[in-house]
Amino acid sequence: MSFFAGTIFSDALHMDTSVAVILPQDSRSHRHPGVLGVLHEGIKPLKTPKTLILLHGLSDNYSVWGHLTSILRYAEAYDIAVILPEVQRSFYHNMKNGPAYFKYISEELPTLAADLFNVSVNPEDLYIAGLSMGGYGALYAALSYPEKYAGVGCFSAACDIRSIVETDAFIGLDAFPGLEEDRRGIFGESPQLSDSADLFYLVTEAAKKPKRPAIFMTCGTEDFIYDSNVRLRNHLQASGTFNFTYEEWPGIHEWGFWDISIQKMLKHFLG
Known about the structure:
alpha/beta, Rossmann fold, 10 helices, globular
């Protein structure tokens, strides 16, 4: 198992940007199958592995999944490459006054990953997931381009993006210094959310498409955004067209919950 952290140049962002990459091709399971390293039951090593784009939250950066979970071990067990990009506090949007992070994540990054790291980003092999702000970003990408992804995972997702943009109800601005300036930078001086970035609207539109990614969603029952996750869950269920799995258990907005969630998601999609 290889782990790399460094920078790549993005045409969408017009700058170098940080990224970490987990690659399973040289893992112990590849070199010594059945002797060193344990693959999950039913997983067979691939020369060109499947790919998971794994997104960070509002107060994190690209490196946090590697620090606070055992994602390297999980990736090795499921023989999947993991791409960990950096988006600052952009909410994965093409900012009104800043870089085009949504274009970078949803259009440019998969191509860069395939070209640079010999991984598969074919629609049957590409997954995207994230926590909190990253859970929103994963759903935003997968529902905007449902033909591109096999599955999407969202953990404690910021489902009600409209309240973040247009009111102060979601997060107290005093909890995140500079968030008000970020909000205006992302969404403009009079912040308004377009329908095309609203998850509830995107679910309705994606339900009409011939191909839709499977969705795996988790939220802790004590999480401060539990209610908005339940509303999105109900909206997905009401659509009646998605391969959709929702799990909840006692938990708050923290890494112990997300470490369990990523394991559950990998097993659900790959195991």
